[in-house]
Amino acid sequence: MILLFYVTPLRRQAVVKRLMTDVPFGVLLSGGLDSSLVAAVASRHLAETKVAKQWGSHLHTFCIGLKGSPDLKAAREVADYLGTYHHEFHFTVQEGIDALEEVIYHIETYDVTTIRASTPMFLMSRKIKSLGVKMVLSGEGSDEIFGGYLYFHKAPSKEEFHQETCRKIKALHLYDCLRANKSTSAWGLEARVPFLDKSFLNLAMAIDPEWKMIRRDLGRIEKWVLRNAFDDDEKPYLPKHILYRQKEQFSDGVGYSWIDGLKDHANQHVSDAMLMNASFVYPENTPTTKEAYYYRTIFEKFYPKNAARSTVPGGPSIACSTAKAVEWDAAWSKNLDPSGRAALGVHAAAYEEEAPQNVSASRNMASLDSFPPPKEPVAEATAMAVVL
Fold this sequence. Notes:
Elements: H1 7-17, E1 25-28, H2 33-49, E2 60-65, H3 70-82, E3 85-90, H4 93-98, H5 100-107, H6 112-130, E4 135-137, H7 142-146, H8 158-170, H9 176-185, E5 190-192, H10 198-206, H11 224-229, H12 240-243, H13 250-253, H14 256-269, H15 272-276, H16 278-281, H17 290-302, H18 306-309, H19 344-350, H20 379-383
InterPro entries: Asn_synthase (IPR001962), Asn_Synthetase (IPR050795), Rossmann-like_a/b/a_fold (IPR014729)
Organism: Iris pallida (Sweet iris)
GO molecular function: asparagine synthase (glutamine-hydrolyzing) activity; ATP binding
């Protein structure tokens, strides 16, 4: 249990280490827990140490979304709370669709979720670079380490929970890290990811997975360990409702109509007959939806060789899960949507009974006394720290 008390200092250290730069920098701020904590730690460090700040007296934060999207509202609130100089960018569904070919060319994948999330990040990176910024901090990695995706509510045991986090971390370079790296570097922008700091990753994966699991009876939601570590009543890092905000996938948070628009566009370009014959055209990682088929045709135009297409992982997925986790619920095999919305029913069912209202009750370390002692760092997960 003592490991929990090292989460905050190591997390701070991971962010501060990545502030070493002599170029203009900022933070990608979606308003969710992960990016908000990165911004909060960076902002506090700059203020407390009186370090020479880029662009004057404020940390710069950046967010993108469709007008009225959840991320824009939450990011603005966090930026106002932290006192950052906030840049809010808007894009339309059509602008995103127009950029798809360029996005797929740069990120080199036909994975549906990665393309959905990479497109707004690609558009935002272009605007950030035009402002003269050369480096940004981003919040990738937290959901994989702490089981933050909504489908983790269905983990049948702490062993399954832990193994799924290991699988997710091992595949990060094919999904979120691929997006964060290539969507930004396409415009000469460097993205740094504090959550994947080796020391922090080793600590986080050494925490007993029982403490990471969602426990309604204890008032614990997803990523409770991380939320608890930064729940400081004396010097709050973030407002309570932001600190305990439910997970939104980036492609969902920028605006739900974004995904709907992509599906509609794909439906216009891929016929039922084309999808029916997909296994003949694409025998490897055969697309099962019109959206996936559409992305595959673009990918094949740029990368027609077998060596290229085999680098993209396949298999069923529910709300960003691995294929193995789909087995946790028989109903999931009938709704293999990689969007986070596919698992909202899981979240609703998990909280159908009212959770404890007093958030501080979930922070009571004494409630964990009956849990087994911390396990040693898992070798396969620890080794994946090299993803940095």
